[in-house]
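Notes on consecutive records. When two proteins share a document, each keeps its own sequence and its own token line. Never mix them. Below: protein one.
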Amino acid sequence: MAADIMQIGREILIAARNELFMNMPYLDLAFSALGIESGEDKTDSLATDGRYLYYDGPYLSERYIRSPNRINRAFLHAVLHCMLRHLAKKKDKDGEIWDLACDIAVESIIDSLDYPCLKAPAAVMLRNKYYSLFETRMKVLTAEGIYRELLKNELEDHEINALHREFFADSHNMWISDSKSQQEGSDDQDKNWEKMSESLQSSIKNGMSDDASGGKAVFEQLKVLSRRGTDYREFLKKFSVPKEIMSVDGDSFDYIFYTYGLSLYGNLPLIEPQETREAKRIEDFVIAIDTSMSTSGDTVREFLSVTYSVLLSTETFLNRMNIHIIQCDDRIRSDVLIRNTDELKTYMEDFELIGQSSTDFRPVFEHIGKLLESGQMSKLRGLLYFTDGLGRYPEKRPPYETAFIIPDEGALDIKVPPWALKVSLTGEELNNARKGNI
């Protein structure tokens, strides 16, 4: 009897996969990428490790009797986790909150797809409440964005449990491997899903219906996932200027004349290396920090810490500098002048976020204008404005480079003035910049 039930469970999943094939042919590679295996000793529901979809026969049979569409949704749910690489990204995160964020992200996609095979009863009010909440902060509901919002909102345990029950479709107990060999296999599997997701983007785009009710939600998340990261180290060089510094310039040194002189005269080289060389350095610079309610203090500290590390490691600063670090929400809250790396380090150690009102970018530009008029800054190259991007922008272009640094995938949907640069940096990209891996 047990063997028969497990076989029935397998046939249920195969039927669900076939129905999804027929309705969403643009995801054919993804549907066929997961093998179907009995999960008697692995799960009491559904679970995937990125290679197989493991199932419990009695669980599937009971769910199928209640609603066949629930199985269709659960199969697609697991496939989307793999496509969006949720499994590999769980490392170093709060497991419970990350699991919930991933479930909400993929369920929001499924709920937006207009296919009869995916219609199933759900607590619409609860789902719509949280979808609306997250959509005020991001246009594309990614797991990373939802994860940050859940951590920021600090929900009560009973609220977390209610959301887990509502958005549950599969177990995530196989997402992180214990042994080193299993972890290496998981990493290889993640790379395979990454390549597959990139290759599927064009077929998803072509397979969408005219009213965008087909694969638009899937396509948007894959587009966010596959966007090119920002090389933060190279980006900061945009704000530097050529300077002559005291240092041997090995590139301009000609070893032929040097050795020829030594061989001809014994101890008299015909040429010596130049004692100065040209390098790009930052002198006058402004870092503005949006301290409105929408900006997290921990995220700001991470941005400042990484910026500090990158600038020091790339020797971008002169020994003497003129850097203003401004905190502002709807008005200037503080302006600290940094003249050397020691002062910058001290500022970092004692940093405290001031403000938490609404966002208005204009006061910072007005303040910088006064600094320029008074002569307190004469060689200003640029302004880095760390913000969520939601606020009132100046209408006129300032006489210096400006970049809005937006630490969220939602930056794809934020429109900044045409004269400004927009840079989206995720936590992973900031971490790479700190380590010098970009």
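Protein two starts on the next line and is unrelated to protein one.
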Amino acid sequence: MVKNLRIGVLLSGGVDSAVALYTLMMEGHEVIAYHMKTMYDEFYVERQVKHKVCCSPSDTFDAQMIAKQLGVVLKIVNLQDVFKKSIIDYYLKEYTLGRTPNPCYFCNRMIKFGYVMDLMLQDGVDLVASGHYARVLDGKLYKAISKQKDQSYFLASIDRERLRKIVFPNGDRTKDQIREIAKKAKIHVHNKNESQDLCFIPDSDQIRFFQEHGIAIKPGPIVDKNGKKIGEHTGLVKYTIGQRKIGISTGQKNYVIEICAEKNALMVGTEEDVYAKKFSVKKLNILSDLSDRFISTVKVRKNSPESPCTVTITNDFAIVESEKPIFAITPGQVAVFYKDDMVLASGIIDEVLC
């Protein structure tokens, strides 16, 4: 990377972004820090935060402390209204359609490396950086060296043309190395816990969240594959494909295999029924030069194993055929396609075909 650049850094207030900022400073770059506020501070006062979340008032305080210690300008970016329209409203809509959304995937595309990145570029920065664990090489997105911390799955939503303006200084480091760098630099968040929950549901109470947004949680039938009622669920938003804890007893292990929003019904089956080999993907985000038909591996959840597959593309829609059955392919979740460590494309799982 060219020396003496002007780089905007997404400073969350955590150790990862702090070390990314510190690293760029040590390399001689002019650094400007940007801290996002996705929710109003009063929101967190009214909620019992059960686990560490991003963008909270304590994160803002930590970001201010880090910027002051390292002597960099910090800009607070208030984007509560934009975040609600782009992320929260999408999250609500998907659940009402019986789908299981992935808001972090869209937040990276539309907010962090969309709306906020645009603000940075308008400020005249040459590059945009964050503390994510991934790598950008020659304008292409790659997994991080540390496979345990790799975040390329969530970053696969970023627009291809923006990658050349992005740098991830932590991509070739482990979490332990990051903490050690922060400790030696006397950055006070060197042992800070990682964020676990969604910033807009800090108390993990999905039911409260939906009810506050005017969405009724209604009980309904649980049916088997033949449509026979075998029980009653307590609200579709509590379930996802592949879930085992359903609240019924039939003498066999039951798994959620389909969420039927239009009938307010939950369909269950055996473990075998949760596996599938063919599915469709919409809203493709292509990050490399690809033919209309290509071979890759696919990951259908952050922690799921990659599966070899063949992908056929038509416009921004794809049909994916896996070599082996994949567990719990879930409409609304993200499919990311890889060739070794390189991210080829990503999209939203639309429908399980067989």
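For the record: The chain has a mean pLDDT of 94.
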